UniProtKB/TrEMBL annotation:
Its EC number is 5.4.99.25. It catalyses: uridine(54) in tRNA = pseudouridine(54) in tRNA; uridine(55) in tRNA = pseudouridine(55) in tRNA. InterPro entries: HSP_DnaJ_Cys-rich_dom_sf, PsdUridine_synth_cat_dom_sf, Pus10, Pus10-like, Pus10-like_C, Pus10_THUMP_arc. Belongs to the pseudouridine synthase Pus10 family. The lineage of its organism: Archaea, Methanobacteriati, Methanobacteriota, Stenosarchaea group, Halobacteria. The gene is pus10. Responsible for synthesis of pseudouridine from uracil-54 and uracil-55 in the psi GC loop of transfer RNAs. HAMAP family: Pus10_arch. Pfam families: Pus10_C, Pus10_THUMP_arc. Residues 74-153 form the Pus10 THUMP domain. It comes from Halorubrum laminariae. Residues 167-413 form the Pus10-like C-terminal domain. This is tRNA pseudouridine synthase Pus10. SUPFAM superfamilies: DnaJ/Hsp40 cysteine-rich domain (SSF57938), Pseudouridine synthase (SSF55120). GO terms for molecular function: RNA binding; tRNA pseudouridine(55) synthase activity. The active site is at D240 (nucleophile).
Length: 427
């Protein structure tokens, strides 16, 4: 059907504003707003039929009930709703009153169009309010996890601004032993700190088994600087509570909910955290990261480099030790789930590769062993043999008992590529 015939039939239904008229043919002529399309159609129709030109006040439109006059007002309300929270990207969603949806369907039927012809009211509203929000705040629309999601509910006369989380990536070193990575709630009181009316004996009433954690040394500082409501620590795996994390550190992401500030100076944040952690924990390489970085640090396969202090129950000579680590290097190790790991986990044998192994004898009963291996390799068991459950092992190859007395992690590096892929950063 000719667009002027569509316009003529639509105009006969009663007062239809320029935007609602233009939306019927929104798929025509890229580069015009719907209001411009509608105005042009009305003008052309008047000329064709040689009638007097009578504009329609948007407020009188029976289709949108005047809502198409409200783009500016809703944009201002949206900006008010987000308050002083900083954002760079946003998206606008609109809940259309059912009556307007019915009007839209009726107009299309009367104009002889398909029910889904042109563009729905809702998408025009989202776009027109969105453009104005962008102009008012100098920010950009994003459909992929924007910093702020605005929801306009026309029937309820309300606008909601949901401020999405922001993320900081970095690497941490843990320089004191006996610090867990994250808060460790007391199992006796489930973290409540109480047993009935009394303080919990097991944790001294704190609700936690350890006073400190890497999370406690880092996340509250980030939460404070970004002025959020909550902060969560996500690590790329975790070392044992009694193991140090040294060298290049372990990747982590701290997620801050409802931040008021996003563009923080990460160098300064790094100094603030390191001052707060006072030598127990150090962070480096802090950068602003995307939402996807959380999954990246949790799921990306990583190799680990360890340094173990090992004690033998019989004398070991340097040549035998060198020979044993040579045989471990490049070997695939079979490990039955160690008892210490998880009693509930079904026993299974896993295979993990040792990429590199070196050792130095400190005296005839003690050695320092460095192992670089695939993620998931159990190092204490690789050394001790775990009573035959790990094969081969250093103890087995030397035919002595061997125990790890101290274990440090020196590096956690992505297997296929580094964790630090630029696609996961925002700065
Ligand atoms: Zn209208
Ligand atoms: Zn407790």
């Amino acid at each position: 059907m000719d667009v002027l015939d569509v316009a003529a039939r639509a105009a006969e239904t009663g007062p239809v504003c320029d935007a609602c008229l233009g939306r019927l043919v929104a798929d025509r002529s890229f580069g015009l707003s719907n209001a411009e399309r509608g105005s042009a159609l009305r003008t052309a129709l008047t000329l064709r039929d040689d009638e007097d030109y009578e504009p329609v006040e948007t407020a009188d439109c029976w289709v949108c009930e005047g809502r198409c006059t409200e783009f500016d007002a809703w944009a201002e309300r949206a900006v008010d709703a987000v308050g002083d929270a900083e954002f760079e990207t946003y998206n606008v969603g609109t809940r259309t009153p059912p009556l307007i949806e019915e009007n839209e369907a009726l107009l299309r039927e009367d104009a002889g169009l398909d029910a889904d012809a042109g563009e729905p009211f809702k998408s025009e509203f989202n776009r027109e309010v969105g453009k104005r929000v962008g102009r008012l705040t100098d920010t950009e629309v994003s459909f992929d996890r924007p910093d702020v999601q605005f929801t306009i509910d026309l029937a309820e006369d309300a606008v909601d601004a949901k401020v999405n989380s922001t993320f900081v990536y970095g690497r941490y070193r843990k320089l004191d032993r006996d610090i867990p990575q994250t808060e460790w709630p007391c199992r006796e009181c489930d973290g409540s700190g109480r047993q009935g009316a009394d303080p919990c004996d097991h944790c001294g009433g704190s609700g936690y088994l350890y006073d400190d954690s890497v999370e406690e040394y880092t996340a509250p500082v980030v939460e404070d600087v970004m002025d959020g409501t909550e902060a969560t620590f996500h690590g790329a795996g975790r070392e044992d509570v009694d193991a140090l994390m040294l060298g290049t550190g372990r990747p982590f992401v701290i997620e801050v909910e409802e931040p008021h500030r996003r563009r923080v100076d990460t160098d300064r944040l790094q100094s603030d955290i390191n001052a707060f952690a006072d030598g127990a924990v150090e962070v480096e390489g802090l950068r602003l990261a995307t939402y996807d970085m959380v999954e990246r640090v949790k799921e990306h396969d990583a190799s680990k480099r360890y340094r173990a202090q090992v004690a033998f129950d019989a004398d070991v000579d340097a040549d035998a030790l060198a020979d044993a680590v040579d045989r471990l290097e490049g070997e695939t190790i079979e490990q039955y789930t160690p008892n210490r790991v998880d009693h509930r986990r079904a026993g299974l044998t896993r295979e993990r590769d040792v990429y590199e192994a070196t050792a130095e004898l400190d005296d005839s009963r003690h050695a320092t062993v460095e192992i670089r291996g695939a993620g998931g390799l159990y190092i204490k068991e690789l050394i001790s043999g775990d009573q035959g459950r790990t094969e081969p092992s250093l103890a087995g190859l030397l035919d002595v008992d061997a125990d790890v007395t101290a274990l440090d992690v020196l590096a956690v590096e992505g297997e296929s590529e580094p964790f630090e892929d630029e696609a996961f950063f925002r700065d």
